[in-house]
Amino acid sequence: MQQAIPSRTALRVALRRAAHQIYDRPIVFHDPVAVAILGDAYAEELRRTPVRDDKPFSHAMRAHLVARSRYAEEALARAVAAGVDQYVLLGAGLDTFAHRNPWPRLKVFEVDHPATQAWKQELLRTNCIAIPENLTYAPVDFESQSLAEQLKQAGFDDGKPTFFAWLGVVPYLTLPAFRATIGFVGAQPSGSGIAFDYGQPRSALPFLEQLSHDSLAARVKLAGEPFQLFFTPPEIAAELAGFRDLEDLGRDEINARYFADRDDQLKIRGSAGRFLSAWV
Ligand SMILES: C[S@@+](CC[C@H](N)C(=O)[O-])C[C@H]1O[C@@H](n2cnc3c(N)ncnc32)[C@H](O)[C@@H]1O
């Protein structure tokens, strides 16, 4: 990411979550704050966010984005039911969970690139969205700063099991930054867990999906956030060898879980993006 500029991809993701609330029925991921956080500043961009049925790529992208948020929050709910009371959003972007948190005892830590975090805080202020007492911000650049130190400064308790979500971030990192972060999560107490999504490398995709990959890669590069990191399922399983109960979902499993029996076009199309959860 460019140092002084808030994440443009975080905005695009948030626009699609907001569009989902307005245009899709049934809703797969309920987020009553998704539209409000964008406010007037992005109302025109939200209006222009493509949702038409003749744009299957935009449906597939939106499906991926809303399903991964739901996937992470379902895993979080299981963690909370098992006693976890800390939730760390790694690369939080404009995620609104902290403003919808149904568990008063769950402390939320939002970790993000400092420029993105400052922009989010400004949006919350402008749009009169209060910052809950149990939310703490921890600015971190995964490439150059210690997640452990920044979280500690923010009051994170590394003696307690914690659930982590890391949505839409892994492809933008270098391998050392990925390993440092996953190593930190893996060192948390038993009962901790993580949910994230990752992309398969171009070479693992069928030809037509390679073209979609190229088009998306060109767009994120133009946004200043080039893709850098991909894994095949066996490669990611090797990275997470120290974790237990690994679940790695591909297109068909995600569609069966979240998009069955719909009569619109909302579903995942390609095989590139996968959702993963794993436990310590
Ligand atoms: C595509 S957005 C996803 C945001 C959010 N997780 C969501 O699903 O809405 C990518 C996020 O990763 C963050 N990010 C990318 N590279 C980063 C880095 N080196 N350090 C910290 N955050 C980073 C960006 O600031 C941005 O918030």
Tell me about this structure.
There is one protein chain. With 280 residues, the chain is an alpha/beta fold. The chain is 40% helix and 14% strand. It is built from 9 helices and 7 strands. It has a 7-stranded mixed sheet, with helices on both faces. Helix 4 links the parallel strand 2 and strand 3. It starts with 7 loop residues before the first helix and ends with a strand. The site of S-adenosylmethionine has 22 residues, from helix 1.
Distance between the termini: 29 Å
Helix vs. strand class: alpha/beta
Low-confidence stretches: none
**Which whole number gives the mean pLDDT?**
95
Strand order of the largest sheet: 3-2-1-4-5-7-6
**Beta-strand share of residues:** 5-15%
Order of helices and strands: HHHEEHEHEHEHHEHE
Helix proportion of residues, in percent? 25-40%
Largest beta-sheet characterization: 7 strands, mixed
Shape field: globular
Q: Which small-molecule ligands are present, each listed once?
A: S-adenosylmethionine
